[in-house]
Amino acid sequence: MGGELDSLDLIDGKRLSIVATEDGLTAEPQVRDAGGSWRRARPGDGVAEALLALLAAAPEVSEIGSFTVHSWSARVAAGERAITVDQTNESVIVGDAAVVKWAAHLQAGPHPAPRRIEILRANGFRHMPCPWGLVAWRSEDGDQTLVAGVDEYLPGAVDGWTWAVDLIAAAADGPDAPADELVAAAADVGTVIAELHAALALTATIASPADAERWRAGATATLDEARAHSDPAMRELLESRVIDEIVDGLGGMAGTPVIEGHGDLHVGQVLKHPGGYAVIDFDGNPVLPPAERVLPIPAVLDVAGLAQSLTHAAIVARRHHRVDRVALSKVDRLARDHFTRSYAAHLAALGHGELYDPACLRAFRLQQVLREVVYAARHLPRWMYVPEAALPMLLDEGITGGP
Ligand code: ADP
Ligand code: MG
């Protein structure tokens, strides 16, 4: 096998190893076979169960060599199976009680999740799977990164690329289709995100001119990259002066409040389950360099991420459910408006209205569309239809006077 840099011993010939591969570092669950040699464990080999046993017996924080183990509400559970959905990391469900996620690609540190989850827990944020614990590892450069996370398993949970797409499709199914369910869902998610931000409010600081400049420069770089990667029709839209003006607006955000927010919020990070909605994945935005993923963000960035993903969900719905284009943009607008209004009202009711400055909502939504262009061009060409449809929709809003 080779390439082991470090390992955390668990019970009974099981361990979690940090392994160097051609693709970088990975967190690998391992089991010792009868001959005494270590091999990569699969779901069913009991390494996730062994991690739960370690957490259940551990104090709230412990240091074991270069590993830091956080344990909050873990208990032992038995029976392992793999999560089957398409995902970047490897997750194992244990006893239908917990999800153990091994980090397939270790991010360079520092990693935002340990601190954000800790703050959310300490402030009683209810709308996430209850965090059971996590394991961080300190590399030789001294930064900590996440190697395993353990959360309560929510049976029957589906993410918004399912629930939002289905609700939007149903609401756009003919001119008289009822939209109540979609409107209620959008408003509920607005209150959930308001509670998320209220729970993080104690991290609030004020954006410096350097922060604003970094946001402007980052969006400009994404715009340049999107221009370089797009076909002639898209390129023509991207050359529009309006786009440069919207992006430049980010440079004027010095003085706005910032918090240690979610940072990568979209409908795919909001699970719907029989008990309500749950926000997942506090790993920060994967397109940013690690040092920037931990920086505070304006609350409006999270709001924009979620709002724009509702539009993208509507575009997915249009492709897969063949709904009418006009009905669809009406429904898209309705969902976004209810989400943002409910968010703003609820945040204010929680006493933190000052955190939300919607001035750059459209700029951050545009940035999200541009990131989708770059993502599709680099990794997933069949996704390009989404930003191709989203961009003219967003630019048209300015003409028709939308927010
Ligand atoms: P990845 O980083 O690999 O994308 P995520 O944490 O985003 O992994 O989860 C991927 C999928 O796994 C989610 O969309 C959801 O369907 C499922 N999932 C994640 N966490 C839970 C949980 N606590 N309970 C139930 N399902 C979950
Ligand atoms: Mg994910």
Automatic annotation (TrEMBL):
Keywords: ATP-binding, Carbohydrate metabolism, Kinase, Magnesium, Metal-binding, Nucleotide-binding, Transferase. GO terms for biological process: carbohydrate metabolic process. Catalyzes the ATP-dependent phosphorylation of D-glucosamine (GlcN) to D-glucosamine 6-phosphate. May be involved in the phosphorylation of acquired extracellular GlcN derived from the hydrolysis of chitosan, i.e., in the incorporation of exogenous GlcN into the bacterial GlcNAc metabolism. This is Glucosamine kinase. A motif (Substrate specificity determinant motif) lies at residues 368-383. Its EC number is 2.7.1.8. It comes from Mycolicibacterium aromaticivorans JS19b1 = JCM 16368. InterPro entries: Actino_Glucosamine_Kinase, GlcN_kinase, Kinase-like_dom_sf. The lineage of its organism: Bacteria, Bacillati, Actinomycetota, Actinomycetes, Mycobacteriales. GO terms for molecular function: ATP binding; glucosamine kinase activity; magnesium ion binding. Binds 2 Mg(2+) ions per subunit. HAMAP family: GlcN_kinase. Mg(2+) 1 binds at residues 269, 281. D-glucosamine binds at residues 264, 372. Its cofactor is Mg(2+).
